[in-house]
């Protein structure tokens, strides 16, 4: 850490914190924790120390607009100048969706970017804040880097900053502080241009112009509002008002910016109501997740990935074919069946987008996704909510079929992977860990045993060896495979900020055409009992039912 080349840079004494280990997607804590003196600064300095030297490099900064976003950006700019960066690109108003940040990093050949978001976690003075670093490929820092950043935080004694006034974030401008040029950029245009270059906008325009296809996009008062308005309303001609809750608010209007059937209820009412909309979509706090709905019809994200893969050849960007696909381990195996039919490789990775980065960079995969409403491709290195919505709209425009028909035809051809995730939120952390530990201790003896009348065929604690750099990641969730073809996965969330969140993932394959239209919880009823019987969820969590079912 040197200040020689920045005249006004000053060393500020600080004390290390011991709890700055990044989780599934960056460091997430309560706003109050981030507001402690030095807390944000220490983490940012740890990032800069890890990627040093910063001298002469370009950095992208932006966030999802939640409470503390603007204050954090001012801190980061002062520190980035003091650390020697020569160029900083900041989204106007402090706004950059996660996919747009990835796009801007790549387009401008920056050395990386700092994205301020706690994604789907609520925002506000008593809620959550988050920070993550993405590298020059535009993707989340791999584990090697996040581990190094964490090590830096443990011994942090000082950080670098300068004395400078806050800069004006709301006007597009180019400023100079010391050696550093700061550009306040339009957060939407680069991303919108990229989308326009990938999809058949004229086919989608015709679809929307017909007037008998009604669409609604719920931005959930989060970052994607301006992006959705520009792309759906301005460039594609959807009627004004098609985007609802389109202004980013610091507290997301008091809601939970998580695009699922529970939290996106306003949208759900519109597509399920009388004379429901033909197409509904929502995205999360930072714009990287998506939920897509047809008229009174829900698409499971695992099915969505499989269907996009099966139909990629209909989209201009993928017309030449796709190299391979990947899904996170808990995601259902629906996409595996499509990959097999297409004769392309299918990779199974740990939870979190950072594990797709190497596969994408190496050209081994083109599309990838997670059960948690995240889908994406090699166009950037993050999951991308609006991209998935546009992919679906493009498919509908080309196939000239409603969403429900596209999905049902897919099930008829490939069979259906019933999938559900049960979340037990904010449970006692010690109990949750004890439950997982006891499961792990049983793994070796599970095979052959029966639970709730169903025999276990195999079980393991998922580990992953990256096929590109051979890095090994262990303890990624307990997988239990059953004789009836079902699978149960238990893991603890790495994004929560309160207690522990237990996630139980259940999936089962069905290819009998007469059994493709069952209610999901019913179809998985037997597996739900097996999960309880094998793990003792009630006993350990004290809960009789999950908080959220998706
Ligand atoms: C959750 C999801 C995971 C996703 C992660 C970040 O992690 O399960 O699939 O990648 O959130 O998503 P966890 O550890 O809580 O299960 V988000 O949209 O930050 O952007
Ligand atoms: Co997100």
UniProtKB/TrEMBL annotation:
Keywords: Carbohydrate metabolism, Glucose metabolism, Isomerase, Magnesium, Metal-binding, Phosphoprotein
GO cellular component: cytosol
Enzymatic reactions: alpha-D-glucose 1-phosphate = alpha-D-glucose 6-phosphate
Gene3D superfamilies, sorted: Alpha-D-Glucose-1,6-Bisphosphate, subunit A, domain 3, Alpha-D-phosphohexomutase, C-terminal domain
Cofactor: Mg(2+)
Recorded superkingdom: Bacteria
Group of enzyme by EC: isomerase
Signal sequence, renumbered to the chain: none
Region annotation Disordered: where it falls in the sequence: 1-26
Molecular-function annotations in GO: magnesium ion binding; phosphoglucomutase activity
Record-annotated Alpha-D-phosphohexomutase alpha/beta/alpha domain positions: 20-158, 190-293, 303-414
The protein's Enzyme Commission number: 5.4.2.2
One GO biological process term: glucose metabolic process
Residue ranges the record marks as coiled coil: none
Family: Belongs to the phosphohexose mutase family.
Official protein name in the record: phosphoglucomutase (alpha-D-glucose-1,6-bisphosphate-dependent)
Originating species: Cognaticolwellia beringensis
């Amino acid at each position: 850490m040197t200040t020689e080349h920045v005249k006004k840079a000053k060393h500020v004494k600080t004390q290390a914190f011991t709890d700055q280990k990044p989780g599934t997607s960056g460091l997430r804590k309560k706003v109050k924790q981030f507001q402690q003196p030095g807390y944000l600064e220490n983490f940012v300095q740890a990032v800069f120390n890890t990627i040093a030297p910063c001298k002469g490099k370009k950095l992208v900064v932006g966030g999802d607009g939640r409470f503390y976003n603007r204050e954090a950006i001012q801190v980061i700019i002062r520190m980035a100048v003091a650390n020697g960066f020569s160029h900083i690109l900041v989204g106007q108003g402090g706004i950059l969706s996660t996919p747009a940040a990835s796009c801007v990093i790549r387009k401008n050949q920056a050395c990386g970017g700092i994205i301020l978001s706690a994604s789907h976690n609520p925002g506000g003075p008593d809620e959550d804040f988050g920070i993550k670093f993405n590298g020059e490929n535009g993707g989340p820092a791999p584990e090697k880097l996040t581990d190094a950043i964490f090590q830096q935080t443990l011994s942090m004694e000082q950080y670098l900053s300068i004395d400078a006034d806050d800069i004006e974030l709301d006007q597009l401008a180019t400023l100079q502080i010391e050696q550093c040029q700061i550009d306040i950029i339009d957060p939407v245009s680069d991303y919108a241009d990229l989308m326009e270059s990938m999809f058949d906008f004229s086919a989608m325009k015709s679809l929307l112009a017909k007037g008998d296809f009604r669409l609604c996009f719920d931005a959930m008062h989060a970052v994607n509002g301006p992006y959705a308005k520009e792309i759906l309303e301005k460039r594609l001609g959807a009627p004004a008002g098609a985007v609802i809750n389109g202004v980013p608010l610091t507290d997301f209007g008091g809601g939970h910016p998580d695009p699922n059937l529970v939290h996106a209820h306003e949208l759900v009412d519109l597509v399920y109501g009388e004379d429901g909309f033909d197409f509904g979509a929502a995205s999360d706090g930072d714009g990287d997740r998506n939920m897509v709905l047809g008229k009174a019809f829900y698409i499971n994200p695992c099915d969505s990935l499989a269907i996009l893969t099966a139909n990629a050849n209909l989209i201009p960007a993928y017309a030449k074919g796709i190299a391979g696909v990947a899904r996170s381990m808990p995601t259902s195996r629906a996409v595996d069946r499509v990959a097999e039919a297409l004769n392309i490789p299918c990779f199974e990775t740990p939870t979190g987008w950072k594990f797709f980065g190497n596969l994408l960079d190496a050209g081994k995969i083109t599309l990838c996704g997670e059960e948690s409403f995240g889908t994406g491709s090699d166009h950037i290195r993050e999951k991308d909510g609006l991209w998935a919505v546009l992919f679906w709209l493009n498919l509908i425009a080309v196939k000239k079929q409603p969403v429900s028909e596209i999905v049902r035809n897919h099930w008829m051809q490939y069979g259906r992977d019933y999938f559900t995730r049960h979340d037990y939120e904010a449970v006692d952390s010690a109990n949750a860990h004890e439950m997982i530990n006891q499961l792990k201790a049983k793994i070796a003896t599970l095979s052959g045993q029966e639970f709730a009348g169903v025999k276990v065929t195999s079980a393991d604690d998922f580990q992953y060896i990256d096929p590109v750099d051979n890095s090994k990641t262990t303890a990624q969730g307990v997988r239990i495979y059953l004789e009836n073809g079902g699978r149960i996965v238990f893991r603890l969330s790495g994004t929560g900020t309160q207690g522990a969140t237990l996630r139980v993932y259940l999936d089962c394959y069905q290819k009998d055409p007469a059994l493709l239209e069952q209610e999901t919880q019913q179809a998985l009823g037997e597996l739900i009992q097996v999960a309880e019987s094998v793990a003792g969820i009630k006993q350990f969590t004290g809960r009789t039912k999950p908080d959220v079912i998706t």
